[in-house]
Amino acid sequence: IQDLDQITIAIVGGGPAGFYTAKKILSDNDQAHVHIFEKLPFPYGLVRYGVAPDHQPIKKIINDFKEVSHNPRLKFYGNVTIGRDISVKEITENYSGVVYSYGAQNDKKLGIPGENVKNVFSGREIVNWYNGHPDYCNLPIDFSKIKNIVIVGNGNVALDVARILIKAKTGELDDTDITAKSLSELKRNNIENIFLVGRRGLIQAQFSMKEFRAFSQTKGANFYVWKDEYERSLNENSKWEFSDQMNSATRLARINKRRYDIIKNLQQIQNLNEIQNNFQINVHLKALLSPFQVNSENGYVSSVDFNRNILKGEPFEQKSFVEESLGTENIKCDLLIRCIGYESENIDGIQIPWDFSNNKIAHHNGCVLQHNSKDKIQIGKYASGWVKTGPIGVLDQTMLGCIETTNNIENHINHLALVPKKDCEEKINQILKERKVEAVSIQDWEKIDAYEIKKGQQNKKIREKIINIEEALELLRL
Ligand code: FAD
């Protein structure tokens, strides 16, 4: 009979997927242990560094994670990077099983000439910066010089970024957990125009309905669509979208109809001269444009050239194509933000098989595949969260994906397929000691947490995050 209380699963990554996975392993099984390894001294991944500061209700999920972290069978190793402080091989050898839950730490590039000039950033960099991620707290932007911004991409991250830029000015972020440093920089902005540019039509944008509706009502901004793009977006859809057959329409058609209802009420313009000086930020929902060149002056972005596109294809399957006859368009800007997606990376090419076509771990239902196999799994190796699914979906979807993975783990535990590891904790502690890694325990994190909340209260904010790893470690050494 196997000692199930000696089954210990290591989870690489202390974001939502790491905590959802831990919670389910610990509740499915009343003996197994879980160790979470998180590279930062601060847990919760994108709930802390992605979710926008004005979306505080979403962050309440942290209360759930807190409860999990108090389970005596869970141990948290913060400030430990797997692949640097401890190798993937060492983790694999020392634990009964390993779950890779380390998210997506890179971003997609536009892949066009000029993209590497100054004042071109990814949405991920901007989001990390205003949310106080230690690796991005010194992003080189001088917002006082920024008047026109192009944001390429039509997903929720693009909306988050645009909304935060607007709300920073209206004072609506003052009591949130946005960092004091980034907020004071954002308040210096002189933004006149934000161009939110999508490849496809206005109706096909990826924004979720709830986010889009809230965005279109943001105070402190005027919203515009451009007449020609509006008409071209609708022409392509009218034949199916707004017909009498809406009764039997699919969910997607209904969503598109609601999107249309918002868009049709926005002011239409044909050029920037039509806008009277209104002392508000002008947000332009631009559509059917693909960037092909970033232009610069003195090393800083000055404008972006776009091809005008046309939509082709069956309803719901439409793709955007460059139509030479429609010509090009140039949009002037002092800041270009590409919000075209996060991207995962392989932290150990030898240990972790990679699905190169989708840039994620090669797996079957959350079980890591054997190298070069499409269906044979490796018992004891798993994936959950964005490194499993690719960087898509909100927290609920991430949680559902974790359940699929943990069902397999539970199955393997019940079939005695995982090897008990007696002394993994001593071995890991020994390795960390030898390498002088200052691991942050959950009690340590709670000390940091209390400090941040207290510092926030002094300034009538929810919290003031520590944005420097050394400062956090210093606090713990006291
Ligand atoms: P992550 O949250 O990225 O967590 C991964 C963790 O792994 C991180 O803590 C990272 O530091 C750690 N890590 C990375 N490499 C290593 C390593 N080598 N060793 C140890 N640790 C490592 N969802 C909503 O429901 N509502 C929202 O409002 C919302 N807003 C969002 C806004 C943005 C800008 C983004 C990008 C996402 C948003 N989401 C939102 C989606 C949500 O954040 C994701 O579904 C979720 O965070 C994915 O969880 P994850 O654990 O896979 O990845």
Please provide a written account of the structure.
It is a single chain. The mean pLDDT is 93. This protein has 15 helices and 22 strands. The strands form five sheets. The chain has a seven-stranded mixed β-sheet. Strands 6-16-7-8-11-9-10 form a seven-stranded parallel β-sheet. It has two domains: 4-105 and 344-440, NAD(P)-binding Rossmann-like Domain (Rossmann fold); 107-342, FAD/NAD(P)-binding domain (3-Layer(bba) Sandwich). The protein is of the alpha/beta class and 478 residues long. The structure holds flavin-adenine dinucleotide (FAD). Flavin-adenine dinucleotide binds at residues 12-18, 37-40, 45-46, 50-51, 55, 58, 81-83, 101-103, 105, 127, 157, 160, 342, 347, 385-386, 393-395, 398.
Helices and strands in order:
Blueprint lengths: L7 E5 L3 H13 L4 E6 L6 H5 L11 H9 L4 E5 L9 H7 L2 E4 L5 E2 L12 E3 H8 L17 E5 L3 H15 L9 H8 L5 E5 L11 H8 L4 E6 H15 L9 H13 L3 E3 L11 E6 L2 E9 L2 E13 L6 E4 L5 E5 L2 E4 L3 E2 L10 E2 L4 E2 L1 E2 L2 E3 L7 E7 L2 H4 L5 H20 L9 H11 L7 H17 L10 H9 L1
Parallel strand pairs: 1-2, 1-4, 2-3, 4-22, 6-16, 7-8, 7-16, 8-11, 9-10, 9-11
Antiparallel strand pairs: 5-17, 12-13, 13-14, 13-15, 18-19, 20-21, 21-22
The site of flavin-adenine dinucleotide has 35 residues, from helix 1, strand 2, helix 2, helix 6 and helix 12.
